[in-house]
Amino acid sequence: MKRMKEWIALVLALCVIASSTSANLGDNSERIEDAYGTIVQRRLLDDGKVSVVYSKGRYLYMVTFANSRSITESYSRANGTDLSEKEITKFLKANARAKWVSANTGPDRRFKTSDGSAEATYGILNGRPALTVRALNP
Fold it and tell me: Which residues, in sequence order, are bridge partners of residue 109?
């Protein structure tokens, strides 16, 4: 029984460590870079924000930073195909502690958090289907 408790504690510790390598809205640029992989493009925007495109595995991640914090993140497949419902749900869950609810008001799919902290849109971005998550009141 003691070994079982030690094993469970080890598994839980590994889960915590693994989850800490994911990134999301509000994270700093170092954590985002560690999670999202190779920088493909970096651009300084006119308003002082920085836009960075990362590539990791089968995904492209486009992140906008203000004061070194992520305020907008877009997720798309590198091959340009649609994200699955499972992928959309995964990216939404990673970006808010509140529950996401559908808020469709037009041709694009829209979501918002129940606490009003973020919103998301699934539609075409730079010629490819992408989920874009934006912090409200960053």
Answer: 122
pLDDT digits (tens, 9 = 90+) for 82-104: 999 999 999 999 888 889 998 87
Instruction: Give the residue from 103, 75, 104, 80 showing the smallest Cα distance to 90.
Output: 75
Start-to-end C-alpha separation, the chain = 47
Lookup: tokens for 104: 């469709």
pLDDT at 107 over 90: no
DSSP 28: B
CB-neighbour burial class of residue 73 (10 A; exposed 0-12, middle 13-18, buried 19+) = buried
- Please name which of 69, 89, 82 lies closest in space to residue 137, comparing C-alpha atoms: 69
Structure tokens given for 54: 């990362």
Residue closest to 120 by CA, chosen among 137, 95, 138 = 95
Residue 32: how many CB atoms within 10 A of its CB? 22
Contact indicator for 130, 122 with CB cutoff of 8 Å: yes
Summarised one tens digit per residue, pLDDT across range 117-133 is: 899 999 999 899 999 99
pTM for the model stands at 0.79
Residue whose pair of structure tokens reads 């408790």 in the numeric block:
5
